[in-house]
Write a structure and sequence with these properties.
Helix content is about 30%, strand content about 25%. It is α/β, with parallel strands linked by helices and about 325 residues long.
Length: about 325
């Protein structure tokens, strides 16, 4: 089989698509023929030597943490799945998972079945961003109905899902995005949209109970005055989390950092929402494995609306 495999960390020139050994099944695993894999900022950062790279161990390394596909075989102790089942999952993070490959050995406990009316590209792109949004909103921030939430970078991969999940919770949702994305965010459920290029968000909104920070750095720090004294900000970008948390402490505001973890039950709930039309994931573009460098360039631009996928089938 073939996979994206790195022999050294670096730029797009290290992204080789080459023949590799087929994965072997361990207890609790299923073997999946990959339909597509979600492409995320953490993939680009890790391949360049940052992000989750310290957790990878020795090279070579096959990147990718989320995928969709069909079951080819099951470990002897796996009873919940059978051949040809449509599945998706977010696995092993932040250790190596090897999802940018034609076949994946995945722990059955981290997988969810894909409903027949959910597109497999959507299923590939949902797990990481969806679980990040879900866990940030409902575990980190404990978002409640009628609360006011500000989502920074609301049109991005995590942001556009968080908007819908918060609206589904009956929260009042305020999002930041450039002006051309405002109509899109209102369709998703934003009650108010702020052009971050034209105004300092903290100067133009009433105080909020929750801030979900999908941007990090100075943008997050500038938004802190919009947070109520008893509110909470959940900051997602790990590279700036320490400075954002420190700014929160200086302003006497609660700031939490979090990293998504695999959760099959939560993923299944989101797939059911997708099947009913209550959660819409935007796939901005799909790429062939040989085009992964182009996808990384798009992610690095910071202008992606929705998610990108790597298509194997």
């Amino acid at each position: 089989m073939k996979a994206i495999q790195l022999h050294t960390f670096g730029g797009n020139d290290v992204l080789g698509y080459e023949e590799v050994s087929e994965p072997s099944l361990k207890l609790g695993d299923v073997l999946v023929r990959t339909h597509a894999a979600g492409i995320n900022p953490i993939d680009w950062k890790t391949c360049s030597g940052g992000g989750a790279a310290p957790f990878i161990g020795e090279l070579p390394f096959i990147p990718g943490w989320e995928f969709s596909g069909t079951v080819m075989a099951c470990g002897a102790d796996v009873a919940d799945y059978q051949t040809a089942d449509r599945v998706c999952g977010f696995i092993h993070f932040p250790a190596r998972a090897g999802c940018f490959a034609e076949q994946i050995a995945a722990p059955a406990a981290s997988l969810a079945r894909v409903p027949e009316n959910v597109d497999m590209n959507v299923a590939a792109a949902l797990p990481l961003a969806g679980l990040t949004a879900w866990q940030a909103l409902f575990e980190g921030a404990n978002l409640q109905p009628k609360q006011r939430i500000l989502i920074l970078a609301a049109a991005g991969g995590v942001g556009h899902l968080a908007v819908q999940l918060a609206a589904h919770k009956n929260a009042t949702v305020i999002g930041t995005a450039s002006a051309p994305k405002h109509a899109y965010l209102r369709e998703l459920g934003c009650h108010e949209v702020i052009d971050y290029q034209a105004a300092n968000v903290a100067d133009v909104i009433e105080p909020v109970d929750v801030i979900l920070d999908c941007v990090g750095g100075q943008h997050a720090i500038n938004a802190l005055p919009a947070l109520k004294a008893d509110g909470v900000m959940v900051t997602l970008p790990t590279v700036t989390k320490d400075e954002v948390i420190a700014a929160g402490e200086a302003a006497d505001r609660k700031v939490l950092s979090m990293r998504a973890v695999p959760n099959a039950a939560q993923l299944a709930q989101m797939l059911n929402l997708a099947a009913s039309g209550d959660l819409v994931l935007s796939v901005a573009a799909e790429y062939k494995p040989e085009q992964l460098g182009e996808a990384f360039d798009q992610i690095a631009s910071g202008r992606t609306q929705g998610k990108l996928v790597l298509r194997f089938k």
